[in-house]
Amino acid sequence: MNAQSRRKAIMEVLQKEEEPTSASALARHFNVSRQIIVGDVALLRAGGADISATPKGYILERDKGGILRQVVCIHSADQMGKELYICVDHGCCVLDVIVEHAVYGQLVGQLQVSTRYEVNQFLSLAAQNSVHALSELTGGIHLHTLRCPDEASFQRVWEELDAGGFLVKS
Question: What's the 3-state SS for the chain?
């Protein structure tokens, strides 16, 4: 299979999958190295494919309905789980974490967590790899993009984050 055919096939796999697919799984599927897949995905993105890299693998972005909202939060690293649980417990998906870095500008980390199980997997992965939260670069201040089923769900998240002291308000 040539590279162009493989990239087309990668897109077909991602279009069928509802959950993220790891570069390693794609590499096994196409009998190439993980690095070849990483390069293929980079080229697909450069060509306009809306592929997100999450901690669990690649996923093709789809319109899943609901509303998108951003919240500006602040907390210590040990409060990350509590903040994420608040969001997912009200039916929202935490799509990303965004920080404004003094040198690099906006840094975005894809999260794509929508259940307590996914939050626990994310926290476990971070702990296993001794990874620091992006928000540690900015004194705990960060943004999250949330996909919520409706405005009422977002309002409940907002109120609980506010009550917990997680929100930065202007």
Answer: CCHHHHHHHHHHHHHHCCCCECHHHHHHHHCCCHHHHHHHHHHHHHCCCCEEEECCEEEECCCCCCEEEEEEEECCHHHHHHHHHHHHHCCCEEEEEEEEECCCEEEEEEEEECCHHHHHHHHHHHHHCCCCCHHHHHCCEEEEEEEECCHHHHHHHHHHHHHCCCECCC
